[in-house]
Amino acid sequence: MLQTLALKEQTLQMREKTMRVLLVGSGGREHALAATLARSPLLTALFIAPGNPGTAELGVNVPIGAENVPALITFAKEQAIDLIVPGPEAPLVAGLADACAKANIACAGPTQAAARLEGSKSFTKEICYAAGIPTAQGERFTSVESALTYVRERGAPIVVKADGLAAGKGVVVAQTVAEAEDAVREMMTQGSMGDAGKSVVIEDCLVGEEVSLFAFCSGESAVLIGAAQDHKRIGDGDTGPNTGGMGAVSPPRGFDHAAQENALDLLVRPMLREMAHRATPFRGVIFAGLMLTDKGPQLIEYNVRFGDPEAQALLLRLTSDLLPALKALADGKLDTTPITFSDSASISIVMAAQNYPGKPLTGAVISGIEDANALEGVKVFQAGTQKNISGETVVSGGRVLAVCALGKTVKEAQERAYAGVKAITWDGAQYRTDIGNRAL
């Protein structure tokens, strides 16, 4: 009898801990997050808004745009959602977490005020200067002539950034003054980045290895998640224009656990203290892009969510349960359960549409995803895809797939990932052939 009562009590406790989750977004990062959340024993229902054909295999896609905050809140109320997990930055900058708080719905992301860390490059600079965080010297400009004058005074190489959100494409690392001048005119006069480029931040060019650092943050405290290395340029050998990311490696070479903790102390925790001091405390995932220079790590930018395609590489190695950690963040706490990863290396290779990072050519039928997924250690995460009227998976965006693989070594992961890439075809597919080479 006592055993029966104990079993009932244990079952009740488990039910109280189970969760109905709404994941917001439609990219490869969201597919990777959905796959990670789906492994949690605490999950009872997973909805993805709007999702993609890959996430549809893991939960229920909901036809609500990621930035349609009112509709997301309405759906969450109707479905008794216990936790909203934001994938991209745009809904956070639009105030998703604030709307959740008003509706008494848990959200694992920062407030609109705190999301300015990603929504405004100039705000990030302000925080860095106030908190003494190592970063490149730079200034914000709303006048084209003032920006051009600054470029000519500082010389090249120099970096021109759209001040607002530009989906990872609003950064030009100019090697000449003329190239920087063109970037300023394109953003500020020609409107190449829309409203995001009406003001620009121009800063000195940092030299070194660029890495991505991830941490769970709440108030003034941060807990290390891990690190990865993105490959931003479209072409092999880091050539061509910047993109949202063409591939990633985890863990990155030369940036071990001790170095990651040191970077948290230098670049993240001082920011958290400054944000708390301003009465806009940060709660959520911080992705700090940083440069490992000969003077030590320096901040490039803050992002207020998991990276893409870094998340695909990083989460593939995760062995602990992500869901309770995200729920704790939503409750303003840090989960005390250790975050654990496999000892394997992982690589994510982005397959992009023809003409990306310009206007992508869409509609091509994709074949071979199932063949790639059948290969040892390989997992394909979908991003810019949709189903056509015949039920075929077709290209619908710029970055189409992230072909990922685990391996005992970086070399093995690289070989497996490229075997997966070669199994997939569509007209106009493009990808880099050197993802992982730096780590080797």
Automatic annotation (TrEMBL):
<dbReference type="Pfam" id="PF01071">
    <property type="entry name" value="GARS_A"/>
</dbReference>
<dbReference type="InterPro" id="IPR037123">
    <property type="entry name" value="PRibGlycinamide_synth_C_sf"/>
</dbReference>
<dbReference type="GO" id="GO:0004637">
    <property type="term" value="F:phosphoribosylamine-glycine ligase activity"/>
</dbReference>
<keyword id="KW-0067">ATP-binding</keyword>
<feature type="domain" description="ATP-grasp">
    <location>
        <begin position="125"/>
        <end position="331"/>
    </location>
</feature>
<dbReference type="InterPro" id="IPR020560">
    <property type="entry name" value="PRibGlycinamide_synth_C-dom"/>
</dbReference>
<dbReference type="Pfam" id="PF02843">
    <property type="entry name" value="GARS_C"/>
</dbReference>
<dbReference type="GO" id="GO:0005524">
    <property type="term" value="F:ATP binding"/>
</dbReference>
<dbReference type="InterPro" id="IPR020561">
    <property type="entry name" value="PRibGlycinamid_synth_ATP-grasp"/>
</dbReference>
<dbReference type="InterPro" id="IPR020562">
    <property type="entry name" value="PRibGlycinamide_synth_N"/>
</dbReference>
<dbReference type="InterPro" id="IPR013815">
    <property type="entry name" value="ATP_grasp_subdomain_1"/>
</dbReference>
<dbReference type="Pfam" id="PF02844">
    <property type="entry name" value="GARS_N"/>
</dbReference>
<dbReference type="GO" id="GO:0046872">
    <property type="term" value="F:metal ion binding"/>
</dbReference>
<dbReference type="InterPro" id="IPR011761">
    <property type="entry name" value="ATP-grasp"/>
</dbReference>
<dbReference type="InterPro" id="IPR011054">
    <property type="entry name" value="Rudment_hybrid_motif"/>
</dbReference>
<protein>
    <recommendedName>
        <fullName>Phosphoribosylamine--glycine ligase</fullName>
        <ecNumber>6.3.4.13</ecNumber>
    </recommendedName>
</protein>
<comment type="pathway">
    <text>Purine metabolism; IMP biosynthesis via de novo pathway; N(1)-(5-phospho-D-ribosyl)glycinamide from 5-phospho-alpha-D-ribose 1-diphosphate: step 2/2.</text>
</comment>
<dbReference type="InterPro" id="IPR016185">
    <property type="entry name" value="PreATP-grasp_dom_sf"/>
</dbReference>
<keyword id="KW-0658">Purine biosynthesis</keyword>
<keyword id="KW-0436">Ligase</keyword>
<dbReference type="InterPro" id="IPR000115">
    <property type="entry name" value="PRibGlycinamide_synth"/>
</dbReference>
<dbReference type="GO" id="GO:0006189">
    <property type="term" value="P:'de novo' IMP biosynthetic process"/>
</dbReference>
<keyword id="KW-0547">Nucleotide-binding</keyword>
<comment type="similarity">
    <text>Belongs to the GARS family.</text>
</comment>
<dbReference type="InterPro" id="IPR020559">
    <property type="entry name" value="PRibGlycinamide_synth_CS"/>
</dbReference>
<dbReference type="GO" id="GO:0009113">
    <property type="term" value="P:purine nucleobase biosynthetic process"/>
</dbReference>
